Amino acid sequence: MDPLALEYSSIADFDVGVTLGTGSFGRVRFATHIKTKEHFAVKILRKVDLIKFRQVEHVKSEKAILHALSQDQHPFIVNMAASFQDPCYIYMVMECVIGGEFFSHLKNARRFTNLTARFFAAQVVLIFEHLHAKDIIYRDLKPENLLLDKDGYLKITDFGFAKIVSFKTYTLCGTPEYIAPEVLLNKGHGKGVDWWTLGILIYEMLAGDPPFVDEDPVGIYRKILTGKVHFPRTYDDYAKSLTKKLLTADLTKRYGCMKRGASDIKRCNWLVETKWEALLKRDLDTPIKPELSSITDTSNFEEYPEEIDIAKPPIYDGPDPFENI
């Protein structure tokens, strides 16, 4: 696939299949381009809901960021092949990452071994290193926003909260269990929030749950601000050391935020043996190999009721803020 070289201009160009995932404003569906027979994941967003819930700027930003990133062809970032719209929907044609949600693989395993967690954490380090070099903060790392490709490598997706920020921004966003303390305190936040979320992800991979949990979001926020992390006895000592250094409220001491940036993380005892160049080239054995019968096998994804009928979309008859994107 040559991203952005494809000039698809209508959903009618595709044979639209099953739903691969859902969100507040639409869903992602497996689709085959009728003429080329190539397979994609098409993100279909309802304009009426995006406007009602003030998500217009988020979508514009997501499209612009994906457009820029897709020209880089980073091995662990999902690529956008094309985008278009009609009076009712925004469509983003993405590469199809067929191995299923990372979330599902983690929940099926309950928790990962130290080696497996280290393999996936290293890929996230490379993702953030690439994004931050372009002044992009992701702001929404969680297992649900990671996919496994057919070979068992990660692809990060859903750039709805991503933003180009050279220093600080003040928007409150993210998943409660993964929100960094500086976001909660509304002090302004930058690239450091992504390194905090890496610490949460490492903990969740090794312990089975995030470190700060509560039935009430306010309770989660209180625990985040208190900052006490309880580690299971099975938690690797080197992993514990890195997790603590990532889950540090003081940005002057948080790994990833200091003078050497991501190098501090890459050189820590837990990750020091990682073959970074081989990983970036996808030359390593993967600890999880999704079971696939064919390149159109969507069985690694959850089954969803097909609620959106593209032939009968909800009607939006006001001024279209997406007209020029």
Structural class: alpha+beta
- The portion of residues forming beta strands comes to 15-25%
Biggest sheet, spatial arrangement of strands:
1-2-3-5-4
Q: If you consult CATH, what is the topology of the largest domain?
A: Transferase(Phosphotransferase), domain 1
- Give the C-level CATH assignment of the largest domain: Mainly Alpha
Q: In CATH, what is the homologous superfamily of the largest domain?
A: Transferase(Phosphotransferase) domain 1
Unreliable stretches covering 5 or more consecutive residues:
1-5
Percent helix range: 25-40%
Give a short account of the largest sheet.
5 strands, antiparallel
- What would you report as the Rg, rounded to the nearest angstrom? 20 Å
User: Mean pLDDT, as a whole number?
Assistant: 92
Task: Tell me the CATH architecture of the largest domain.
Answer: Orthogonal Bundle
> How many separate domains?
2
In one word, what is the shape?
globular
Domain Protein kinase: 14-271
Domain AGC-kinase C-terminal: 272-325
GO molecular function: ATP binding; protein serine/threonine kinase activity
Keywords: ATP-binding, Kinase, Nucleotide-binding, Serine/threonine-protein kinase, Transferase
